[in-house]
Amino acid sequence: MPLLGALDERLGAVALAAALVVLWRGNPWPKAGKIAATVAAMALLGAVVPDQPRPAIAAHPSAKDAKPARTSPAFRPTPPAAPTRPAERVRDFLGERLDTAFGRSRKSGYSVTYHDASSQGRAVTARSLWTVCFQQPEPGSVVVEKTVEFGVVQAGEPCPDRDGHAVPWPKMPDVSWKTWPTARAEVAAVGVPERRIRAEAAYRNDTLPAEGEYDDWRVCRQDPAKDAELRNDAWVKLSLSSPENGCPDPDRGTAVYLPDRDGDGDPDYRDPHPNDRNRDTVFPNGRPRDTGGSSDGDSDRHGWSVCRHTRWC
Fold first, then answer.
1. Per-residue b/e over 42-54, b at no fewer than 16 CB within 10 Å?
2. Pairing of strands 218-223, 236-241
3. Which residues have C-beta within 8 Å of that of residue 271, sequence separation ≥ 6?
């Protein structure tokens, strides 16, 4: 067993274990002798087992073999990036006069074109007389190329709903049998200036009272007719009648007269003396007579005369 332990510690351990088994199981020795033999065998095996080699300790490098330690480079802060200019965006010229939009665009370096935005395809001349309705690129978009095109209509015209569509002129409302103030307000509401809305008497031999005294008169005819286009130069004429007279029969046209029994030019409803042609609203006490003794005077007193039977005098 000591010889095996000297050769190989694992063989020595196996031999020791086998010897101990034989010692404790098949040997009649007393217990104390067995213990003593066991201790002695283990001590003998430990004495002959060679020492385990220790790992070699690396020698400290000499000064000349030592390599300098690597150091990280000094921190250098990254310089801040130069501020970027915001993207240029297309200016909004909608609603401006073409000459203004054209001049400002060219001053900013744009190439400018323009065309009629209506369906009529008109030639655009005299830029001050046109208004911008559409522009490409659209207002606020980022500039890619410095070009812009305007769609325009003549000053005073409403813009089409889309470029190239018809100009949406307002339509004449139906104001038949409405009072003068109501009718005038409705026509003005669609864009006709009040100075372009005129009133006249519907009957040929009738006249309007003073301003403000025919507010209860009603519309019998209107020109333009209902749903007609009201262009920016349109005039509107409303023919009025007193409520007590009603409107003329449309089939009789516009040359319709009110009853005038004495033929003095005043309709009976206004004539203070409807049966006396020498007295009317202008001369309620009678017309002045000519005292010059001329034949015209005799005609004025006894027969038909221009002054008495017409309103030319």
1. eeebeeebeeeee
2. antiparallel
3. 260, 262, 264, 280, 281
Residue 28 DSSP SS3: coil
Amino acid in position 4: L
**What does pTM read for this prediction?**
0.56
| pLDDT tens for each residue of 35-78 | 777 777 676 656 655 555 555 555 555 555 556 556 555 667 77
Give, for 237, the enclosing helix (H) or strand (E): strand 236-241
- Indicate the Cα dihedral angle 180, 185, 190, 193, nearest 10°: 90
Task: State in Å, rounded, how far the first CA of the chain is from the last one.
Answer: 171
Amino acid at residue number 137: P
72 burial type by CB count under 10 A (0-12 exposed, 13-18 middle, 19+ buried): exposed
pLDDT digits 0-9 by tens, 230-288: 998 899 999 999 999 999 998 888 889 999 888 888 898 888 888 888 877 777 777 78
Provide the sign of the torsion angle of the four alpha carbons 302, 308, 309, 313, taken in this order: positive
100 within 8 A of 125, measured Cβ to Cβ: no
Integer Rg of the chain from CA: 62
Q: Taking Cα atoms as reference points, which of 237, 289, 248, 284 lies closest to residue 264?
A: 284
DSSP 3-state helix, strand, coil percentages of the chain (rounded to 5)? 25, 15, 60
The tokens for 123 are 């030639």
Counting beta carbons within 10 angstroms of the beta carbon of residue 312, is it exposed (0 to 12), middle (13 to 18) or buried (19 or more)? exposed
- The whole-angstrom separation of Cα 253 and Cα 221 is 10
Q: In what order do the strands lie in the sheet with 111-116?
A: 111-116, 147-154, 130-136
CA atoms within 13 A on the CB side of 277: 18
Cα distance between residue 153 and residue 159, in whole Å: 7
